[in-house]
Amino acid sequence: MDHYDLKHCTQEDTIEFEILSNLTDEQKPHFKDGEPVRLMSIGDDYAISSLADNTKVVKVKPVNAHYKSIIEGILSRGRVYLTAVINHTRKLLQVSFKQFSEEKNLSYAINVSEEFFASVRRSINLNNVSNPKRDIEEGTLYGAGGYTYAVIGVHARADEGQQFKQFVIAGRDFYIQVAKIEEDLGQEYYVAEKVLKKIKVDDYYFFLAKGQLMYTTDREKIALETKAVMESLSDDTYIKIWDEYGEIERETIMKEARDFRALRYTSYEQIGRDYRFDISSDNMERFSAFAKKFERGDILAASIMNPFEIQRDNQEFEDYLDKHKNYIANVRLAEDIDPSSGSIIFTVDDQEARKISVAQQGYIFVSIMGDKKRLDRREKARTRIESRQCPMPNLSAVLEGKSVSAANRTKRDYPALSDSVIEEIFTKKGKYHPPTQKQEMAIAMALNTPDIALIQGPPGTGKTTVITAILKRLNEIADPAGGMFGRNLVTAFQHDAVQNAIDRIEILGLPAIKFGYKYNESEDDIIEINAAIQGWINDRLSDLYMCHSDLDSKKYLIDFNKLYVDYLYSANSIDQTLDLLERVRNLVDIRISSELLDELSDEISDLQLMTGRVAETTTNLLVRAIRRLPASEIAFEDNGRFELQRAVYQLRKQRNTEFDAEIKQIQKMLDSGAYDFESLKLIRKNLLIKVLPKQDIFTSPSKKDDIVRLLGKISDYLLNQIEGGKDGEDLVIMQYMQSMEEDPLAVKQAILNYSAVNGATNQQVMRKEIADLKDGEIVFDNVLVDEAARSNPLDLFIPLSVAKDRIILVGDHRQLPHIIDEQIVGKLEDNKESDVKADIEQKIKESMFAQLFTKLKMLEAQDGIKRTITLDKQYRMHPTLGTYIDNNFYRKYNESEHVGNGIEDPMFFAHNLPGIENKACIWYDIPYDGENKGEKAKSKFRRKEAEAIARHLKQMILSEGGRNLNYGIITFYREQVNEINKALADTSIQIMVKDETGHYVINPEYKKNNRDVNEIVKVGTVDAFQGMEFDVVYLSMVRSNDTEVDVSYDSPEVARMLQKKYGFLMYENRLCVAMSRQKKALICVGDSKMLRGAQAVKAVAPLVEYYKLCGEDEYGTIIQ
Asked: Which pTM does this prediction carry?
């Protein structure tokens, strides 16, 4: 605050001084109005110096005896005062002296909470609403001479020991009430309780406080305590170990790129959609190395420059590529590399092709730009967490299982369910299906956690329902003052997992918006978002047409309104007006009064006397869009960017090359963000000339006014007929539907403004498109991570680093784990002691989800706040299968993870599939014969299994009991996926066909509709199936051999031999996922001899138990 704002002084005097001389080398020092100064005696005269600038010192004397006596009184009696210049002329200084009753040294850090800031926003006018702390500081604290001053008021009748239990700080035009908080362990701190506009001054004793008074936010206080907690830990913290892993990974990637060096290409040419690069024959050994390392779909780099012309270390190489990125194209292998062909076929998009178009010759090398971007995002996230600069400053401590008391002071107590959640999520077809006790506890825990909530969701336990309920409740309890867009982030390791998570989510009836794309999909977020929104619009329209099938009979209301509006916006040639009025008459002739019909007919007759038949009607939506183009900065501020987008949309709809130049100009402005309003004015003029009729435009305003008045009367008449009844409701619905059909850009804008949920993979959370929509700062109130156990911690740090209020991790550490590089782990463990190696092994190989499952339970014991829960009732699968999954993958590890069956009646899962009627557990035996199996690119396949699955599946699909079911085919090997697709595409099966690009797709005959999520058949590796469910699942084992392993003793060699025999079948978490996707039946297809003997019990015990179940249980069977 300024000197002028200091209140409650005992006396204020303004003294005039004559400037005698300058006491420093400073030429003619000038004091600003309000500048704090110090007064000093120099003999009979005085000196005044600036407290902020010691080069500003002048010798002065009071201009008269009266002023001199005041100064002597202040100085001689030891008064407490503050001084500031209030006016400085060439020869005079006016100085204000404010005297106070006493001065006390105080250095308090006063905590200001979010709740306090909320009350501040309601109570006083702020210059900076997003950062009220600055306004509070400037309004109550006075800085001078390296000290902070404040005027403090304590209760006049309080005992000396009680004075600072509660006091006020006097501000510019408000007071802050402060209280001392004393905790049980003796810790004391001060908090700002509330803002007071006025007080009873006589109740307080005011004095001047001097020291280092400051306000600290909750976040700052938490950060300080977190720093102390982290400094007390050893150097091998969870984040630091992953720091080291990340550094080694970066070095490894850079070294590999440098070691491969570059292939020289001598020319390239476009062949259809791809490009052929002819490779120089001067280094065939390197060419062969590229062929072994890279395969179809991998990304390499092409450039006219060779980055290896000189030897560079890792950092120099990285810097070089970054500096020259505009001349380095990312190219994707369209086919596997065949060195004998002398060329490589790449897919190159137009933007990348332009980077190398200046020359026919150049170099192919390992692309690191994608890796660099990925590694940089990881590093920035770790740095934000470690330095406590993330929105949740105590996150690093929580990840170590350490409590930060300052972060837990605000207790949340939100109920799990609301009426709307009960109705929309847990009520089906009018019947309430209450959540299980654990589901309700999980929702409440997620709402009330001060930091992280972890929900373990074993297969079929309803985690998607819980996620939807959590997001809806978070939206209900959110403070609307901050806007709605993107309050919540839903993220996961893979795109499919994100899509699966957000497909069911609608908050306020609006869809979640997913950002980012797969490497083989469109690289344009806008295209992806538009497609998602258009799909949502289409779904809404279909639902509305189904619910309101009688709307067609009332569509004349919308059609008339459209004609009316079109006339207002049209150029109104005589021909067009005649055409429009005839269409109006055809619409309303039996629906309006005879008087109005006669008046309308008279107008038509008048126009028919003036002209012949009609010209083509102008596209009036287009005219309207062009006229709304902003031609000034003021016009642009009123939704100008949206109007430009609308104009481009309407122009492109015309499919008229006459508009191409204007479209290109507008699009260039949109892309660059640089708007030339003079050019826009000219564009608008040119477009109107092109689209408006050039003949017979009315020159008589009165004639147009007559027609406008007539149409207005017809509109009023029609509205009066329907308002207040069901027709009125139908009109609103029809207008809503018309908006969605005719103005999707406006719908998109509304969705982007109000959609509360964003979706993105862990890595793509930091996309520029999200930052732009969030005004440059990517922060989410709440971050929900689905399939959290699958996320590599380095990637998971990214979404965690942008969470402000809550982090909700949903997943299952008994299912698929994150992927790590064993070579990097080996380097990380080099030269470490055995106990350190074991610690690293655990922290690196165990998922962060599993780590936190343990750490958060420790935290629960420290502060009593619930943070972990396991959902304990599965509703997906047949109870026999549910019990099998529980016994083999959950209960044996921890009784608290026991998963019961929510539906115990087996008949709920009944089916009539031929040969396996009502069976849940089926083993389809394909004995070992030594043939029809193989290995390609380290991925195995077994053709005999693939063909058996294809034949059996076709029989099921064509049966009466199987035609309405959907089927998943899972395997552990990518090459087996290809074999199964080939078998399904065989002429005798034809469930699959090849599309124009050569990829296998479902035969349209076997599709329920064109949305992938509803395909009758899906084939893939287990990694693509987590989170999905199907009526029937085939699991292709692939492994079949006659190798015998002696397991009577343990040794590394025995472990290696078992791994060689069984491969992926030994990984329980992969089996858990693969064997829990089905609802009605699981059909395991493989060689049952692989499950015999002690070697099988040791290596693949869950499969041994499953085979027994198939042979012994009433709901099991073995088929040949």
From this structure: 0.74
